[in-house]
Design goal:
Blueprint: E1 2-6, H1 12-22, E2 26-30, H2 37-43, E3 50-53, E4 56-59, H3 61-78, H4 89-119, H5 128-147
Parallel strand pairs: 1-2
Antiparallel strand pairs: 1-3, 3-4
């Protein structure tokens, strides 16, 4: 059975969500945060999320999602789910593009903006760096909004 090491409000939610979509059994184990040396030694993983899939231990949320969809794609297709890659090359390319969009195109700017707002003082809090991040995020979120089906937005 798949074990998901989870910390609430972290990217491990992505893995839980995928397993729910796949309808497969899994166990959630709340990981200590900050991660202690015992957890790191036991798993070899230095960040959350992490999984143990019958002895295959890995981290990095996007890598985990690709691993799980790739390994379980036949079951997903049999169930008629659209989660994960479709055998059609164009659909698979689109799947990978949006899979990586959150990490590559959104997260860097969202994290930077959060740090600026949390740690900066005075005019730096709303200065050029913050405005640049906001503009980039607005543009990229608009692209995501255009891509989402109407039903997913309600």
């Amino acid at each position: 059975m798949l074990t998901i090491y989870h910390v609430p409000h972290f990217r491990s939610v992505r893995v839980i969500w995928l397993m729910e979509e796949l309808g497969e059994p899994y166990e959630v184990v709340r990981a200590p945060f900050p991660l202690d040396d015992g957890f790191k030694a036991r798993t070899g993983v230095l960040a959350i999320p992490a999984i143990d899939d019958d002895g295959i231990v890995m981290g990095e949320s996007i890598a985990i999602l690709q691993y799980l969809t790739g390994r379980r794609i036949q079951k997903a297709l049999e169930r008629g789910l659209t989660v994960g890659p479709n055998p059609d090359p164009a659909a698979y390319a689109e799947h990978l593009n949006w899979l990586h969009f959150g990490e590559a195109s959104l997260m860097v700017h969202a994290a930077m903006l959060a740090r600026i707002r949390r740690l900066a003082d005075g005019p730096e809090k709303t200065g050029y760096g913050a405005k640049a991040c906001e503009t980039i995020l607005e543009t990229r979120l608009a692209a995501l909004e255009r891509r989402l089906p109407t039903a997913a937005r309600t």
